[in-house]
């Protein structure tokens, strides 16, 4: 990030704190949060940062991702209107600050925190140097490839396949209700955050999404980390296919431009990916960062 971009970013954030993905964390306006049920006591909380997924019934309280200290309090207030149980399981889909910085606050009301080993490793090594990193709380139950637990009537399953959005992504499945939290594997109809230093892999991302497209069915309800409106942070397999096809088109486009003799500087000026002209940017420089990641990956 150059100084000009950094200043823009700082202005966007307001408080002058920088954190991973900071520009994408915000809804486009100052709307109050959205807290709503989608199916069988499973719902979403949309505010700043990655969408929180939740399950509340008489036997179980499960929360997926924790956003920020300053947004997770409203979430917990809403949750407490539905239940006075402790959170049985808090799950982190990956290490990014907009998914884990609420851990310290939620941990006081939580029995256990679960994440992939790589999520915790990256949380330790990558989330450093900001106020949000001073009191990090990590998962106390970790897994490499898959994890499952039955709680009340709901069978829970989570798995990591390959590096994609980060080196530690997990997909979380409420099996009985057939609801899946995709974490940041889906940025629905918006340019995704991609940073190779988070061990992101565009090719891996395609593999992970292909696997999910095959694994889940047409009744599966998917929850996504980010979109441009609260109505777009959940949907069906078409969204997974769209995301997968965007990443493939990004790689193909950059590969073709390189083959035609264009320099990296010229390729970075790309203003849209053919076929995906309607993709929205949640922050300035979103597509450029995607192209940069593609260039790095194609040079590997
Ligand atoms: Zn993320």
Outline the structure in words.
- By secondary structure, the protein is α/β, with parallel strands linked by helices.
- It has a single domain, classed as Ribonuclease Z/Hydroxyacylglutathione hydrolase-like (Metallo-beta-lactamase, Chain A).
- 33% of the residues lie in helices and 20% in strands.
- The strands form 2 sheets. Strands 1-2-3-4-5-6-7 form a 7-stranded mixed sheet. Strands 8-9-10-11-12-13 form a 6-stranded mixed sheet, with helices on one face.
- Helix 6 runs antiparallel to helix 7 and helix 7 (237-259) packs across helix 9.
- The protein is globular, with a radius of gyration of 18 Å.
- The protein starts with a helix and ends with a helix.
- The model is unreliable at 1-24 (pLDDT under 50).
- The protein binds zinc ion.
- Zinc ion (ZN) is lined by residues 21, 94, 96, 165, 184, 193, 225.
Beta-strand proportion: 15-25%
Could you say which overall geometry the principal axes of the C-alpha atoms support?
globular
Summarize model confidence as the mean pLDDT: 91
Q: Can you list the ligands bound to this structure?
A: zinc ion
Q: Tell me what the CATH architecture is.
A: 4-Layer Sandwich
Strand order of the largest sheet: 1-2-3-4-5-6-7
For the record, what CATH class applies? Answer: Alpha Beta
- End-to-end Cα distance, whole Å, is 21 Å
